C-alpha cells in the first residue's frame, strides 16, 4: 500500500514543483516589467523636467526684457507728455535724450512664452510621469496665465504700429532718434494721443508681467526641487 502511495505522490510533487517554478517565473517577469516601466517613467520625467526648466529659463529672460522695455516705454511717454504740457523736463536725468524717448515708444516688444515642451507633454500624455497632481495643475496654470497675459500684445503692438505710421506721415521714423524734432512731433494731436495710449499700455504691461514672472519663479523652484529629489533617488 505504501508503495502505491509513493508512486502516486511523485507526480504530485513534480506538478507542484513545476507550478511553483511557473508562478515564480511569472512574478519575476512582472517585477522586471514593473522595473522597466518605472525606469522608463523616470527617464521621461527627467527629460520632461529638464525641457520645462529650459523653457522656463528662456521665458524668464524674455519676461525680464519685456518688463524693462515696458518700464522704459512708460517713462518715455511720461517725459514726452510732460514736455508737451510745457513742463521743464530733464531727459538727461533719466539717461535719455528726447530723440531716444521717441525711439523707445516705437520699439517692438512682445510678451512671449515658450510652449513647445508643454504642448508635447499635453499631446503625448507624458505629463502623467509627474506623480504630483498639484504640480501638474500648477504647470497647466502657468501656461494658461501666460496665454492670458500675452493678450497685451494684441493691444500694445497695434498702438506701436499706429505711432510709427503717424511719424511716417510727418516724413520721419522712430529710428531717427535724435534727428527727430520733439516739438514738431508733439504738435500733432494724433501722435500725442497715441503716446498717451502707449504710456498707459506700457504701465499695464509692467503689472501683467510681474504676475507671470512670479509664477515662473515659483514653478521653476518646484521643478528644480523635483529634479534634485529624483537625481538623489537614482544614486
Q: How do the strands and helices of this protein lay out in sequence?
A:
Elements: H1 2-84, H2 98-106, H3 116-124, H4 133-149, H5 153-169, H6 182-186, H7 189-234
Helix pairs in contact: 1-2, 1-3, 1-7, 4-7, 5-7
Number of domains: 1
What separation lies between the terminal Cα atoms? 62 Å
Unreliable spans are none
What does the radius of gyration come to? Answer: 32 Å
Share in helix: over 70%
The whole-number mean of residue pLDDT values reads 86
Give the overall form: rod-shaped
Number of helices: 7
Structural class: mainly alpha
> How much beta, percentage-wise?
under 5%
Major sheet summary line: none
Q: How many E-type strands?
A: 0
| H-E string | HHHHHHH
Notes on the protein architecture:
With 235 residues, this protein is an all-alpha fold. It has one domain (2-234). 79% of the residues lie in helices and 0% in strands. The protein is built from seven helices and no strands.
Amino acid at each position: 500500500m505504501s508503495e502505491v502511495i509513493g508512486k502516486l505522490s511523485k507526480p504530485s510533487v513534480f506538478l507542484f514543483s513545476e507550478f511553483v517554478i511557473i508562478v515564480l517565473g511569472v512574478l519575476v517577469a512582472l517585477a522586471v516589467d514593473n522595473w522597466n516601466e518605472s525606469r522608463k517613467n523616470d527617464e521621461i520625467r527627467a527629460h520632461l523636467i529638464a525641457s520645462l526648466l529650459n523653457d522656463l529659463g528662456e521665458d524668464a529672460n524674455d519676461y525680464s526684457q519685456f518688463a524693462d522695455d515696458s518700464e522704459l516705454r512708460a517713462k518715455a511717454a511720461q517725459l514726452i507728455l510732460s514736455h508737451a504740457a510745457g513742463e521743464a523736463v530733464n531727459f538727461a536725468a533719466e539717461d535719455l535724450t528726447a530723440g531716444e524717448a521717441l525711439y523707445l515708444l516705437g520699439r517692438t516688444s512682445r510678451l512671449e512664452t515658450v510652449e513647445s515642451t508643454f504642448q508635447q507633454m499635453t499631446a503625448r500624455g507624458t505629463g502623467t510621469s509627474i506623480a504630483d497632481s498639484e504640480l501638474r495643475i500648477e504647470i497647466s496654470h502657468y501656461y494658461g496665465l501666460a496665454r492670458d497675459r500675452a493678450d497685451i500684445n494684441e493691444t500694445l503692438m497695434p498702438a506701436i504700429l499706429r505711432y510709427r505710421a503717424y511719424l511716417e506721415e510727418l516724413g520721419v521714423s522712430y529710428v531717427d532718434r535724435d534727428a527727430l524734432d520733439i516739438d514738431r512731433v508733439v504738435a500733432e494731436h494724433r501722435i500725442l494721443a497715441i503716446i498717451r495710449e502707449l504710456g498707459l499700455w506700457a504701465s499695464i504691461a509692467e503689472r501683467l508681467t510681474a504676475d507671470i514672472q512670479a509664477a515662473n519663479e515659483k514653478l521653476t523652484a518646484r521643478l528644480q526641487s523635483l529634479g534634485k529629489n529624483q537625481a538623489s533617488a537614482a544614486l
